[in-house]
Structures are given as structure tokens and as C-alpha cells.
Amino acid sequence: MLNMIQAEMFKLRLNKSFWVILLTSLVLSAVMHYLAITEWWQVYNTPFDAAGLSEMNGLSMFMAPLFFNLMIGTLAAFYISTDFGPSGVIKNQIISGKNRKLIYFAKYIVYSAAAVVIAVLIPAVTGIILNIIMGNGGIFTFETITYLLGAYSLFSLQLLGYTAIISLLAIITEDSGKTIIFSILFTIVMYIVEKMPKSGIIERIYEYSIFQQFNQVLFPELGIESIMTGLAVGLITMTVLLFIGMIVFSKKEIK
After folding, report:
1. Where does the sequence pass through the membrane (predicted)?
2. Coil, strand, or helix at residue 9?
3. 81 to each of 33, 70, 84, 244, how far by Cα in Å?
């Protein structure tokens, strides 16, 4: 298993799309944080305001699924879906006798780790460094650092559930273009569901979805019940979707 993960990491390092997306995330993070710090771009009533970290409001854009999907959905398209193409990477892995479930699991682990780096670590670290450089280092107290670690841990857990969904889409479509299109459409549908009036079972289901948790886990002073809900929703979503992905990939005909 470790060898498969190492092989996937090597393949990721050679993937030009990964480096382009990584650089894009870095540049956008720096620009958005600079605009927020200098108040050229003002955002109000954010979780960061409530936590006393208004100078970190540049992170707000990166918290929206409609935005971060553009990066990690594209990464899935050019990292996972392209393996089904003429290069025959998937076919070669299967012919070599490796367990399909482990192949899928290794791809999910490496893809998800890359997604967390792109959508979570780079924006957060860039914001911290830029604030320190621009003389706002005093905002990072024990309390605010604790808030960032806790909130981003829960947020990353929801993101792992999201990458499980996108990974499943990638192996179903087997095409980079379709993966990008369907991931965007899926996110748009969930955004519409979030904004439209809901009642009964639909409201209940959405309340306990990762999309609702993306909005909830960043707010400071979460109660124990809210924290446990975030943990449960993220873990269950990730586990169920990962299991489904393994089953689908195991039964999939590889041409």
C-alpha cells in the first residue's frame, strides 16, 4: 500500500496541471489577502470578523465550494480522469496485479492531500505570512491561533468528504472535461439548494451535509454538539463515499 501511495505521489509531482493549480492558488491567495488587508476588498460579517481576525478575510473566497471546486475539481480531472486515457496508467496498474480497492484508495489519499494543500494550507499560510510582513502579527494570539487550527481541522474534514465525491465523479466520467463540468454543475446545484426555501426531509438532509458544515465549522465558539456534528458529518461522508468509490472502481470495466 505504501508503495502505491509513493507511486501516486511521484505521478503527482510530474503532473504539470498540479503545479499550475498550486501556483494559481498561491498567487490568488496573496492578491486576495493583500486587497483585504489594505481594505481595497471589504468583506463583512465573516467568521474571521467574529474571531477577531478581520485581517484574514481574504480567506473568505477560498471557503466557498463554488470557488475551491474550480481548483480541486480541475486537479481531479487532470490527475485521476486522465489515467483512463491513452496513457493506460489505470490498465497497467490493474495488469500488474494490484488490488483495485487499494489502487483507488491510494489515488484518493494523494489527491485529497493535494486538495488540502491547495485549498486550505496555501491560503491560510499565505494570509498569516502576509499579515506578519505588513505589521499585523499582533492579531495572532494564542486564542486566534487555536481558533484557526480548530476551525480549519473541521473544514479540512468536510473537504475530505468533498474530495471523495469528486474522486467518484472522476472515475465514473473517465474524462477530464466531463469531470470538470459535472463537478461544477454539482456544486451549482448544491448552492441553489442552499439558497432556496427548504422544508421537511430536504431541509434535514441538507442540515447534516458537508455543504452546510462548510458554512458552520468556521464560526468561533462552536458548542460541543456542533463540533461533534461536524466531525460525524465529515467522517461519515468521507467513509461512505470512499467505500462506494472503491466498489464502483472494482466493478468498472477498464478498456
Report:
1. 20-41, 61-81, 108-133, 145-169, 176-193, 227-249
2. helix
3. 32, 15, 6, 17
Identify the CA nearest to 167 among candidates 182, 154, 152: 182
Which one-letter DSSP state was computed for residue 134? T
Residue 160, C-alpha cell as written in the block = 475530505
Q: Which amino acid is at 123?
A: P
Q: Which of 213, 119, 211 minimizes the C-alpha distance to 165?
A: 211
All 3 cell numbers of residue 152?
A: 480549519
CB 108 within 8 A of CB 163: yes
Torsion of CA 156, 24, 172, 237, to 10 degrees: 10
Which of 72, 66, 67, 64 has its CA nearest to residue 21?
Answer: 72
What would the pLDDT profile of 187-240 be if each residue is shown by its tens digit?
Answer: 888 878 777 766 667 777 777 889 888 888 888 877 888 889 899 999 999 999
Contact of 155 with 47, CB cutoff 8 Å: no
Cell match 465523479: residue?
169
Structural contact between residues 160 and 105, judged by C-beta atoms closer than 8 angstroms: no
Neighbour-count burial of 133, counting CB atoms closer than 10 A to its CB (0-12 exposed, 13-18 middle, 19+ buried): exposed
